[in-house]
Amino acid sequence: MVFPEKIWSHYQGAGVIVFSGAAPRLEYLFRLVKRRASRAPSVLNIGVGNGYFETRCQKAGFQVCAIDPVEAAVESLRKQGVDARRALVSAIPFPSGYFDFVVASEVLEHLEDQELSAGVGEIARVLKPGGYFVGTVPYEEKLGEEMIVCPDCGKVFHRWGHVRSFSPLSLQAALEPDLGLVRMQVRGFSASRSWRGRAASGVRRILLFLGSHGVNENIVFVFAKRA
């Protein structure tokens, strides 16, 4: 198993609790898909996490599928009746023109240049003409601030396995050879459901509107396959 997959396997297993804070972000993407869907859509989610997104899609009557490089993660979804398959984004095991939506939240920052290019091509391939690629990446992440060292082997690595940082312009450049930009915005997501958390989230949105950025923000994007 290559080193990044060891990181993913940890967070899909013993460290799966880390995904509990992702619910607001995934809920936002679910609602974004729901607003754009004219009927019960076919949706592919890339990167399983704790299965929150797939569960929401199932409850809404969507046809949801998923891929992930970790077998234990996809097996968990299979038990819930989801067509989940162990695969990489660079080789998506579904037919061309199969999905109305492909979703990838906090995935693209894990991909090296060759895999990113191949992955974007695969996403475009499995989308129907006019279908949407929806997702998030960290906003202008300072990768050096999240580097840690393994006390056993001495290897230095990013704690979440990120290998690239995106700005809106660099993300657009990475996706536009295969897909057309529909919408892009920078926003933060608060994991707190308390009134303080909601208030802080509201203040953050106002600051973003005024052009002021903080930490732990995301680029939310929607691209479409050209008809």
Explain what you see.
- Helices cover 34% and strands 25% of the residues.
- The protein is of the alpha/beta class and 227 residues long.
- The chain has one domain: Rossmann fold (3-Layer(aba) Sandwich).
- The strands form 2 sheets. A 7-stranded mixed beta sheet has the order 3-2-1-4-5-9-8, with helices on both faces. Strands 6-7 form a two-stranded antiparallel ribbon.
- Helix 2 (23-36) packs parallel to helix 3 (52-59).
- The radius of gyration is 17 Å and the shape is globular.
C-alpha geometry: globular
| End-to-end separation | 39 Å
Query: How many strands, what sense, and barrel or not for the largest sheet?
Result: 7 strands, mixed
What fraction of residues sit in β-strands? 25-35%
Q: Could you give the count of β-strands? A: 9
Walk across the major sheet and give the strand order. 3-2-1-4-5-9-8
What is the CATH architecture term? 3-Layer(aba) Sandwich
Count of spatially separate domains? 1
User: What is the CATH superfamily?
Assistant: Vaccinia Virus protein VP39
Spatial extent as radius of gyration = 17 Å
How does the SSE layout of this entry go?
Blueprint: H1 3-12, H2 23-36, E1 42-46, H3 52-59, E2 63-68, H4 71-78, E3 83-86, E4 99-105, H5 113-126, E5 127-138, E6 147-149, E7 156-158, H6 168-175, E8 180-188, H7 195-209, E9 217-224
Parallel strand pairs: 1-2, 1-4, 2-3, 4-5
Antiparallel strand pairs: 5-9, 6-7, 8-9
Helix pairs in contact: 2-3
